[in-house]
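Morning. Coffee machine broken again, so started the prediction first thing and wrote up yesterday's gels while waiting. Chain of 30 residues, entered below exactly as on the submission form.
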Amino acid sequence: AYSNGIYESAFYRVINNSPNDRISIPFFYE
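Came back before lunch.
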């Protein structure tokens, strides 16, 4: 299990790296 901090960091990190990768983020939350 990952802490919320991990998810938040990955979320903003992906947004900054590649907008297209944002699509992958919702899968982490599910």
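Residues 1-30 form one domain. Going to sketch it on the whiteboard this afternoon.
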